[in-house]
Design goal:
The protein has 208 residues and is mainly α. The protein is built from 9 helices and no strands. Helix 2 runs antiparallel to helix 3 and helix 3 (36-58) crosses helix 7 (126-135).
């Protein structure tokens, strides 16, 4: 891969990853709820999901799913339903003020559950897989071995993506200082719920 091609890829991915989506919103919400250190579990779950999608795209899984009638429709319905469910959970969640000194995960929310929820959010969007399938090949030099180029791009994407997770998580901790009042915490929960539901409905209304 030529250096100028890699830089073009870096700039493109920088802005793609910066745009707020389900992953970024989830990381920010977990940072507000659990603190920066504990929100790393959510970052890890989303990160593993993104890398899995990119790797699957590089291995040709997208072409296989396209060849199976209805596969993307099922994935879209499942992903949209899960986002809407998360929106409902946020809407009815506890409106108690955030204790910004709290550093432990609540007993009802295990580390495994934090990771699994984040991973499911990241992996359940078929649009991400389609994006990876359409995006990565644009930067491949057909005259050179493809595997090393895919490896460089997946690694680059991963570094930029996880960096933006930290930016959103740090923003979440800043928001947390304002959520020590029940009314503001309730407003934040309702806003988060509305955004998740909006993502879900948008997924339902889109065409794979």
């Amino acid at each position: 891969m030529a250096l100028h091609t890699w830089w073009l890829f870096v700039v493109t991915v920088f802005f793609v990853s910066a745009s707020p989506g389900p992953n970024m919103l989830h990381v920010m919400a977990r940072s507000v709820e659990l603190g920066l250190a504990r929100s790393m579990l959510a970052m890890t779950g989303c990160f593993v999901a993104v890398l899995s999608l990119l790797t699957a795209s590089a291995l040709g899984l997208t072409a296989l799913l396209v060849a199976i009638p209805g596969a993307f429709l099922v994935l879209r319905l499942v992903g949209a339903g899960y986002l809407i469910w998360l929106g409902y959970k946020a809407w009815v969640s506890d409106d108690a003020p955030v204790d910004i000194g709290e550093g432990e995960i609540a007993p009802r929310l295990s580390a495994g559950k934090v990771f699994r929820t984040a991973f499911t959010i990241g992996i359940s969007n078929p649009k991400a897989l389609l994006f990876a399938a359409a995006f990565l090949p644009q930067f491949i030099d057909a005259a050179k071995p493809e595997a090393p180029q895919f490896g460089i791009m997946v690694l680059t994407f991963g570094v930029i993506e996880i960096s933006w997770y930290f930016v959103y998580a740090l923003g979440g901790r800043s928001i947390a200082t304002a959520l020590t009042r029940p009314a503001l915490k309730k407003a934040f929960n309702r806003t988060t719920a509305a955004v998740f539901v909006a993502f879900g409905l948008a997924m339902l209304g889109s065409r794979a």
